[in-house]
Backbone:
């Protein structure tokens, strides 16, 4: 594990060895998102910093609803949310410049999502992960530990 | 907070100042293929920025996301591109491409079968990725149509999908791909032909396993068929040797479809099925709208048989009729009528004529009036038969007299011997009144049979006057047609009269004289 300073040092987090967070451009003003893609396409770990009020558990569930996902809530408080998401991914094509078009049949996406929210007066921080439903328990425990390691170094 | 500060998201030990030597983690995380994928996902500039972050704390200011107006403009541009490709398809040299183009528009009595529409990256895709705790490497958000008022999550490299929520199945195509390039007309035409083949064969209930099991042989056959008919984009498109083409498609699919690669490499029975599947299968390989509508119309049951027959006779050419007639699927569909007469009528319609030569003989001048008559005959609609016959020009009626193809058509289409006798009387004389005259004569024969069999005179010696009168109104050509061309009617109505009256009437038919 090593300590990573994120968002101009606002957040300190213990990242497992080999993990690194990458920022994603194209965010709305004053919103910042960085994530780490877990190996073997098992999911993603991410941090999101938004202007307040930002996203909370209810907004996250609304997002799932907008994706026509069926949600099973495992645990929910005002600051934490853990749920399973079940969504139908329609058949579609991929356009790969090197091999051309390939097709993917309709499939079901089943994932486990855990999020923790720090809601401040001007900003909201979310630490979260989304993994495939059959992800190893050891990986899920590691992700939970990583979320638990988040330390705020200033006011939100 | 400035965007430059985002660079700090990297753990400090991984930050490097050497921009020429990639950090080992860069190789590990991105590798060559993953880096290409990232470039396609977010564009080269973004990928370069990401790499820079991995190498240095010096970060370029990032670009702002596109606006909704930007993306709706892109959707409009895609729509224009799709329409241009569609227009090109309508006059394409390849029959399957032309057929596919017709599926997207109504054509006379053949309704529009499917539609196409743009699929475009949403302006807020990156924000939605963040909202959902997703990865930009595997998720992106799109809208369908021209307005960004809907959202659909797929992978960033998605080129298109099918929307089945509307009245018509709609092929959604992304005009501008993840790498920023625009699809060519050939790529779009290939997509249309490929996807239309999938939609059609699924609607026929063929290859059912393709929707329930992506690793099934049905799935393999479904994709094989679509790649076979697709005109562009693959090395095998111009391969004339069918076996070589089949092997090339197989090699491509096994290499690029993990769902099929796994069973192929691990299941000997599956591999054997795949290796021996050398040609596309299923109904309507050419995406033909007429063949497609025929399947639907037959599925409508006996109540819709008039529409079915009308479609076969007026819309389908001999090649299409022959393909339908030889199709096990269509034959199976026809048996669902569970009505022997209906089944026979559709079979008859499909079987005749099956060559262009015969079709030409049937309607040499391709006259719409003649087509209307043929349609009325197929429908066995007496009123329409008479109306359409009257509508013929005198020259067309004259040609009908000697048209053997039409006579054969009538024989095939009209099993009712009385109606057929009337038809022949009208056609061989070119006179509608002879239709009525023959009908009256047959009525008189029936009445005569009753009178002569029920009378005291045994055997009868006098031909009833009403029968003489009725026969007198029948022209010689019409009499001969009953005698020689509609033998089953003659046997039932004339031969069955008590002797010797029957012999007298037969002689009058044959010789054209007055019956004794």
Residues:
């Amino acid at each position: 594990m090593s300590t990573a300073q994120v968002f101009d040092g606002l957040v300190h987090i213990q990242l497992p060895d080999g993990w690194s967070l990458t920022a994603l451009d194209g965010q709305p003003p004053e919103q910042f998102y960085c994530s780490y893609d877990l190996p073997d396409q098992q999911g993603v770990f991410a941090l999101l910093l938004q202007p307040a009020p930002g996203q909370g558990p209810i907004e996250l569930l609304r997002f799932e609803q907008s994706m026509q996902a069926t949600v099973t809530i495992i645990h929910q408080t005002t600051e934490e949310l853990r749920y399973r998401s079940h969504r139908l991914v329609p058949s579609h094509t991929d356009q790969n410049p090197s091999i051309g078009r390939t097709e993917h049949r309709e499939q079901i996406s089943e994932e486990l999502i855990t999020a923790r929210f720090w809601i401040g007066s001007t900003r909201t921080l979310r630490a979260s992960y989304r993994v495939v439903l059959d992800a190893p328990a050891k990986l899920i425990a590691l992700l939970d530990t990583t979320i638990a390691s988040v330390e705020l170094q200033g006011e939100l | 907070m400035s965007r430059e500060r985002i660079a700090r998201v990297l753990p400090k030990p991984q930050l490097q100042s050497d921009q020429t030597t990639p950090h080992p983690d860069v190789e590990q995380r991105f590798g060559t293929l993953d880096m290409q994928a990232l470039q396609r996902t977010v564009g080269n500039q973004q990928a370069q920025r990401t790499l820079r972050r991995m190498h240095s704390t010096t970060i370029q200011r990032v670009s702002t996301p596109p606006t909704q107006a930007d993306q709706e403009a892109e959707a409009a541009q895609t729509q224009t591109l799709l329409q241009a490709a569609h227009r090109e398809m309508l006059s394409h040299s390849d029959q399957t491409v032309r057929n596919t183009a017709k599926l997207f528009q109504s054509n006379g009595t053949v309704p529009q079968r499917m539609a196409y529409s743009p699929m475009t990256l949403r302006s807020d895709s990156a924000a939605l990725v963040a909202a959902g705790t997703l990865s930009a490497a595997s998720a992106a958000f799109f809208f369908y149509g021209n307005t960004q008022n809907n959202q659909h999550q797929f992978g960033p490299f998605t080129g298109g999908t099918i929307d089945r929520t509307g009245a018509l199945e709609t092929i959604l195509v992304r005009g501008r791909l993840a790498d920023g390039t625009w699809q060519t007309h050939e790529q779009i035409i290939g997509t249309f032909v490929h996807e239309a083949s999938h939609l059609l064969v699924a609607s026929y209930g063929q290859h059912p396993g393709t929707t329930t099991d992506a690793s099934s042989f049905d799935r393999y056959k479904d994709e094989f068929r679509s790649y076979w008919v697709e005109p562009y984009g693959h090395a095998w498109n111009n391969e004339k040797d069918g076996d070589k083409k089949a092997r090339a498609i197989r090699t491509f699919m096994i290499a690029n479809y993990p769902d099929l690669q796994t069973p192929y490499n691990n299941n000997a029975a599956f591999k054997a099925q795949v290796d021996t599947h050398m040609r596309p299968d299923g109904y309507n390989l050419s995406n033909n709208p007429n063949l497609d509508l025929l399947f639907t119309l037959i599925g409508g049951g006996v109540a819709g048989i008039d529409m079915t027959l009308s479609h076969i006779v007026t819309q389908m050419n001999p090649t299409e009729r022959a393909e339908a007639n030889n199709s096990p699927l269509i034959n199976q569909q026809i048996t669902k009528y569970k009505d022997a007469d209906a089944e026979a009528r559709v079979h008859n319609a499909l079987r005749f004529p099956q060559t262009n030569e015969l079709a030409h003989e049937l309607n040499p001048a391709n006259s719409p009036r003649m087509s209307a008559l043929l349609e009325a005959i197929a429908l066995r609609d007496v009123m329409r038969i008479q109306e359409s016959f009257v509508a013929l020009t005198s020259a067309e009626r004259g040609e009908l007299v000697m048209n053997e193809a039409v006579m054969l058509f009538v024989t095939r289409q009209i099993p009712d011997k009385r109606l057929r006798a009337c038809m022949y009387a009208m056609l061989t004389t070119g006179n509608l009144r002879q239709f009525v005259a023959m009908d009256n004569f047959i009525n008189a024969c029936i009445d005569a049979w009753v009178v002569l069999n029920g009378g005291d005179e045994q055997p009868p010696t006098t031909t009833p006057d009403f029968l003489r009168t009725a026969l007198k109104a029948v022209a010689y050509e019409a009499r001969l047609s009953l005698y020689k061309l509609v033998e089953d009617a003659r046997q039932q109505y004339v031969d069955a009269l008590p002797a010797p009256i029957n012999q007298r009437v037969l002689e009058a038919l044959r010789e054209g004289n007055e019956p004794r």
In short: Residues 137-148 of chain A form the longest helix (12 residues). The CA atoms of residues 22 and 34 of chain A lie 5 Å apart. Chain A touches chain B through 64 residues (CB under 8 Å). Chain A has a mean pLDDT of 92.
